[in-house]
Specification:
alpha+beta, D-amino Acid Aminotransferase, Chain A, domain 1, D-amino Acid Aminotransferase, Chain A, domain 2, nine-stranded mixed sheet, six-stranded antiparallel sheet, 15 strands, 29% helix, binds ligand PPE
């Protein structure tokens, strides 16, 4: 936290922290996986680059370089003793003047690690989840910045998630302000139709997901065509396969949308999920360059 290692119970902020009042923070969600050669952080550089981009879009200068954040994360994992973990870097406007102009508030930075299992459940990863199209639209780029992973913007996802859960579904799928499919509350979305994979484009109010990029690369390497284009709501239920991808959710199939059965996880989903799981867990040499390996003291 702000350059120091702080015990879990001491990692606290003042109630007048600017970001608590106005949502002026940016963050990342990253995972490290236990491999034969110790913990490996998946696409760490890409996540840190996106953190910088998120901060830039909100006029927030980061007080640490990417390399400093990377080194601190390595040491944090090493000290924690965790072999696999979720990693949450956060940069936010701290305690200072109140009011909407944050530019003289300090930018504080923390990184936390903890164990976090399957985000949409182990059964969800295996058998697929039930999703509904949200009544809430994904935030418009005309009012905030979908490309920035900013804390305040997550109120939008929180509303969608609460609505979906209370109605008995595991996840919400949000449309953009044109009524085209955008993404899940915390995942990007893919559909498969007649052997082609489709995913909403950068202009559909999506977060530029790092799992999304990885899936596009894996599909390209398999020779499976991937098309980034606007997706109509009806195409979700008419798809052969639907799946969600994100750091927390990894690759989670969707078996039902709006109470209409799509079916158990299909062939394309299964194949890509298998390759992706191997890549995450350091079992596929082809994707070794995606791993940032953490040196930890060997067990005594
Ligand atoms: N869209 C949204 C809105 C989103 O929050 C995420 C990640 C993604 C897409 C996928 O991005 P990526 O992780 O780079 O593939 N959501 C993070 C936060 C989840 C949370 O509940 O917190 C995550 O998966 O870590």
């Amino acid at each position: 936290m702000n350059g120091e290692f702080v015990a879990w119970e001491d990692a606290k902020v003042h109630v007048l922290t600017h970001a608590l009042h106005y949502g002026t923070g940016v963050f990342e969600g990253v995972r490290a996986y236990a491999t034969d050669q110790g913990p490996a952080i998946f696409r760490h550089f890409d996540h840190l680059a996106r953190l910088e981009a998120s901060a830039k879009l909100y006029y927030m200068p980061l007080p640490f370089s990417t390399e400093e954040l990377r080194t601190a994360t390595h040491e944090l994992i090493s000290r924690s003793g965790l072999r696999s973990c979720y990693i949450r870097p956060l940069a936010f406007r701290g305690h200072g003047p109140m009011g909407l102009d944050p530019e003289s508030n300090p930018v504080e930075v923390s990184i936390a690690v903890w164990e976090w299992g399957a985000y949409l459940g182990d059964a969800g990863k295996r058998d697929g989840i039930r999703a509904r199209v949200s009544s809430w639209r994904r935030m418009s780029p005309q009012s905030t910045i979908p490309h920035s992973k900013a804390t305040g913007q997550y109120l939008n996802s929180v509303l969608a998630k609460i609505e979906a859960k209370r109605a008995g579904y595991e996840e919400a799928i949000m449309l953009d302000d044109h009524g085209h499919v955008s993404e899940g509350s915390g995942e990007n979305l893919f559909i498969v139709k007649d052997g082609t994979i489709f995913t909403p484009p950068q202009t559909a109010s999506i977060l530029d997901g790092i799992s999304r990029r990885s899936i596009i690369q894996i599909a390209a390497d398999l020779g499976t065509p991937v098309v980034e284009r606007a997706i109509a709501r009806a195409e979700l239920v008419l798809a052969d396969e639907v799946f969600l991808v994100g750091t927390a959710a990894e690759l989670t199939p969707v078996r039902e949308v709006d109470d209409i059965e799509i079916g158990p996880p299909g062939e394309v989903t299964r194949e890509i999920q298998g390759i992706y799981d191997d890549a995450l867990n350091g079992r596929n040499p082809r994707y070794e360059h995606w791993l940032d390996r953490v040196a930890v003291p060997s067990a005594v």
